[in-house]
Amino acid sequence: MECVCFEERLTAANGLEIISGFDLVIDGTDNFPTRYLVNDACVLSGKPNVYGSVYRFEGQMTVFDARKGPCYRCLYPEAPPPGLVPSCSEAGVLGVLPGVIGLLQATEAVKLILGRGRSMIGRLLLYDALGMEFREIRVRKAPDCPICGEHATRRELIEEVAVCGVAGEEDGPSDVLEPLQLKQLMDSGAVQHLIDVREPYEYTLCRIHGSVLIPQGEVLSRLSEIPRTGQVVILCRSGIRSRHVIERLKAEGYGNLYNLSGGILAWGREVDPTIEPY
Question: Is there a catalytic annotation at residue 3?
Answer without folding.
Answer: no
